[in-house]
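Slide 14.
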Amino acid sequence: MAGAAEKRSAQQVVRLDAIFLFTSRQEGQTVWPGLVYPYNSALMIAYLIRRLLYAVPILIGVNLLTFALFFVVNTPDDMARMQLGIKRVTPEAIEKWKVQKGYDKPLLVNSQAAGAGQLTDTIFWHKSASMFVLDFGYSDDGRSISHEIATRMGPSLAIALPTFMIGLACYVSFALLMTLFRATALDIAGVALCVVLMSISGLFYIIGGQFLVSKLWHLVPISGYGDGGFKFVVLPVIIGVIGGIGSSSRWYRTIFLEEIGRDYVRTARAKGLSELRVLFTHVLKNAMIPILTGVVVVIPLLFMGSLLTESFFGIPGLGSYTIDAINAQDFSVVRAMVFLGSLLYIAGLILTDISYTMVDPRVRLS
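Slide 15: predicted structure.
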């Protein structure tokens, strides 16, 4: 009898919880068990078109800002001297390089041209307009930027994807553990550990990991990337996961503690459900929206790699490609990588908004 009563109580709580997440029926939505999505395809298409139109001025502004910041500290003459690699380079050689690379035009406005040519016959237009059709052109050393991006995307994902997936599982699990034992010595020790890990620079983890694991223990190569790629990425992945434990676990712990105080949690406890079942069945499910905010938006950015990690470990990914371009003052590569990063971030925001409708029927794209 007691078992049957507990089963009925659990079913009642599940139904109460389902009312919040899964059984809301709104205009323009259809509800299936465990999934809510807009069935009106026209609404989805209109939303995507609207967001893409909003993205155009943002990308133009990002291009303008990147262009201004780059040419404030670098002139085309400085770029020519850097690329030619000659200390006593002649003015004729500089002018020839500028003509070959398209840097012989005015920066933003060509007062000598007529009509629309005042804006189109400029360095900014020739270097930036083609990027809106994903034509990134060529770097200052003559290599195809699109080919380099396609080639280097694999090594970047080989580090970023395992770091993201393993890290997410570790961060959420650790946060749930601290929430389960909240206000105890374990919780206090966990929060203190998070604060300590947050206070340490990521550069310390990289240098310390290379010294300890590679130089002293000789377990994995200290840097590089090639055949047998696993041994080259295992240390960067471990360091990436450890470096994010502090901030991410504290943030998830805050989310779970906020959900613990909700009325539906008190109702679940009153019905006799165990703390573990309340935490993993109800609290975790209802905390999905703030978790999605931080998770889905970064998924597209995994393609961009990590600047520090790839540079220190010699990984030929997009992060090290960007660092090398900045050091070489290669504006073509810098503006392409900034544009690509902005485009992927906007795509992440759109994916986040769409994913909201799948976990909470109260959120509508309209």
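Speaker note: Confidence is low (pLDDT under 50) at residues 5-39.
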